Amino acid sequence: MARRSDHSREEIREMALEAAERLIAEQGSKALSARKVATAIGYTVGTLYLVFENLDDLILQVNARTLDRLHARMLEELAPLDDPMERVLQLGHSYIGFANDHPHHWELVFEHRLPPGKQPPQWFRDKVRRMFALVERELKPLAGNRDSQAISRGAAALWSGVHGICILAIGGQLEVAGVDSVQSLTRSLMRNYLTGFRTNGSS
Amino acid sequence: MARRSDHSREEIREMALEAAERLIAEQGSKALSARKVATAIGYTVGTLYLVFENLDDLILQVNARTLDRLHARMLEELAPLDDPMERVLQLGHSYIGFANDHPHHWELVFEHRLPPGKQPPQWFRDKVRRMFALVERELKPLAGNRDSQAISRGAAALWSGVHGICILAIGGQLEVAGVDSVQSLTRSLMRNYLTGFRTNGSS
DNA sequence: ACCTGAACACCGTTCAAGT
DNA sequence: ACCTGAACACCGTTCAAGT
After folding, report:
1. Residues A121 and A86 both lie in one domain
2. Contact between B189 and A152 using a beta-carbon 8 Å cutoff
3. How many Å does it take to go from CA A50 to C1' C2?
4. Contact assignment for A177 to B156 by CB distance below 8 Å
5. Quick one: A68 and A23 in the same domain?
6. What residues of A are in contact with residue B113 (Cβ under 8 Å)?
7. Which of A56, A79, B67, B183 has the most other CB atoms within 10 Å of its CB?
8. Nearest nucleotide to A57 by CA–C1' distance?
9. Is residue A57 situated within a structural domain?
């Protein structure tokens, strides 16, 4: 058992988040519990409540780290590309790729619900917004003379579409639909949408 | 307390499902528990296990009823329309409308996860497939000379897109994105996608 | 000051025992 | 035969008590 002052609050926080991430990655979010996390880092469950407000708070912190990693991956895989269309398509592929590589973490970000009436804190909402802004930015060069509201809507539509594919794919509901490959579906969704976006707008 | 043979197995089943639906509708799926359902129908928790395999099974039955209602609503709202494009768009609006009217029930259908490795039973997958087939059928008149695989893919893309909008809207992540109205986003997604679908394909 | 350990009010699931 | 009630192994959260 850990004695007092073995670790700083910050160290305990980091240890707890890593333990939680391991549990989630290996067994899914249903296997996550305050008691398991505490045991995994050699502390009592009470100690977690000195560092986190409650379990929802801990999950929010885990989700923030997941969003950071997702954002970093999107930026990274975008970097080598020049063609505007290719760049937008790559955003979708990166998103799907991440969801596929880390399904449990990805699920938790979008399926975790705070108690009714509670909203995620602003710093968390900003991380979501940042990802959305990335789509908007890459969509702009394809948008011709469409105004910024149209671009926002286009980005939201694209993101929703890719997101929906991820969800249904993870839930196994797309095999039901007889679809061969998730990536080809993503490509089809984005390309067709963008064709319509450009056709119905700029000319 | 209920005495034995007060109700048939079928009656208990129906009472339990209704009680569960009420709990979910009013307080969300997190408030659902076997004990609460049992108490609500005047039986002991053990009794539920004579009628349902376990809590996952009870949830599956609730979800099946939700899918039936969603499907019925889509058919109903489709009936008065003639124009093929309007019909496809209506499917999206019905889907969003249902999710908006019954957010907790709708969420449970797509967020409930069976234990790792377990798949939903065939009869449940068929209910999902049936909804997908509806989209396929309505897409066909717009598909020109595209083959059935392209139509399947188109239906999957459309459904994914609308589904993603629902998820993000329910999670409150679309306000973050600065989108005015969910319905207009849906319309934009579907119209632009369909424009691309027809442009890139039939001609 | 830091952490524990026990308590409280819940869970899902099982099954011997009662009627 | 049908249902109960208690048990088991878990939960999240709190907080007096120990070091």
Report:
1. yes
2. no
3. 10
4. yes
5. no
6. 28, 30, 171
7. B67
8. D12
9. no
Residue A15: band (very low, low, confident or very high) from pLDDT cuts 50, 70, 90 = very high
By C-alpha to C1' distance, C13 is nearest to: B54
Q: Of A73, A107, A67, nearest to A92 (Cα)?
A: A73
Does the structure show a pLDDT above 50 at A203?
no
Instruction: For residue B33, give its domain range.
Output: 1-52
Smallest CA–C1' separation from B11: which nucleotide? D2
* pLDDT at position A177 over 70: no
Q: Distance (Å, rounded) from C-alpha B49 to C-alpha A193?
A: 48
Q: Is B187 a residue whose pLDDT tops 80?
A: yes
How does DSSP classify residue A141? G
**Token pair belonging to A125:** 């909402």
| Alpha carbons B108 and B144: distance in angstroms, whole number | 37
Q: Which alpha helices (H) appear in B79-121, and where do they start and end?
A: 84-101, 103-111
Domain assignment present for residue A58? The answer is no
Q: Using CA atoms, how far apart are residues A57 and A55, in angstroms rounded to an integer? A: 5
pTM of the model: 0.92
Q: How many other C-beta atoms lie within 10 A of the C-beta of residue B180?
A: 12
State the DSSP H helix or E strand holding residue A174, giving kind and residue range, or none if neither: helix A173-176
Tell if the CB–CB gap between A196 and B200 is shorter than 8 Å: no
Q: Which residue has the tokens 């290719």?
A: A86
- The token pair at B82 is 């003639």
Q: Are residues B124 and B163 in the same domain?
A: yes
Which of B142, B157, B130 is closest to B88 using CA atoms? B142
User: Per-residue pLDDT averaged across A177-194, rounded?
Assistant: 84
